[in-house]
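Incident log, support desk, overnight shift.

02:14 A customer reports that sequence design results differ from what the structure should imply. Their input is reproduced verbatim below. On-call engineer (initials T.W.) acknowledged and began investigating.
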């Protein structure tokens, strides 16, 4: 589920006007710009390209009334500069995640063959994730009880996002992992 941008209508209108005086052409440029920014985030292996694109537009919306008056040149370049700054922030925050070696994995009694298949598929699917996404999901589930609540709150703060946004990002990752594990288990069952 994609996070919806919180751009107020008046700021959205000002962004469109800044992109082009022709409203229809401005709308086309807006859609293309969103696609271009999402591709940039995707190419840089960001876990939430759509959410980061929304964040770029939110940041520009907060300043568009000031920036538009003094900015010279193609406004799309301004959006790309904001996206580049957001990328730098995102990569800096990755360093704040819990390293894989510090993730506490609970010890279980002897596993059944089914449990071993699930674990093996989980590990295989985790390896398929990009580094940032893998670190995020492992860090999110690293703690238990009150430590878990505090840890997740700290994660959201260090990433400068709300806890709800963090939950949505993790939910998307978890859904893709569950799909991957399901496919892996099906292949294993068919191979037996």
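02:41 Re-run completed on a clean worker. Output:
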């Amino acid at each position: 589920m994609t996070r919806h941008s919180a751009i107020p209508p008046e700021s959205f209108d000002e962004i469109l006007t800044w992109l082009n005086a022709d409203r229809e052409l401005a709308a086309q440029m807006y859609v293309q710009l969103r696609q271009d920014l999402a591709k940039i985030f995707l190419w840089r292996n960001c876990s939430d390209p759509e959410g980061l694109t929304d964040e770029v537009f939110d940041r520009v919306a907060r300043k568009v009334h000031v920036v538009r008056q003094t900015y010279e040149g193609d406004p799309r370049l301004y959006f790309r500069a904001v996206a580049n700054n957001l990328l730098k922030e995102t990569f800096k925050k990755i360093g704040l995640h819990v390293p894989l070696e510090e993730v506490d994995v609970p010890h279980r009694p002897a596993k059944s063959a089914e449990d071993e298949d699930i674990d093996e598929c989980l590990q295989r699917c985790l390896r398929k994730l990009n580094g940032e996404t893998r670190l995020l999901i492992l860090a999110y589930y690293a703690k238990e009880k009150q430590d878990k609540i505090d840890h997740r709150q700290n994660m959201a703060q260090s990433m400068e996002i709300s806890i709800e946004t963090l939950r949505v990002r993790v939910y998307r990752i978890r859904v893709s992992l569950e799909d991957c594990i399901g496919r892996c288990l099906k292949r294993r069952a068919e191979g037996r």
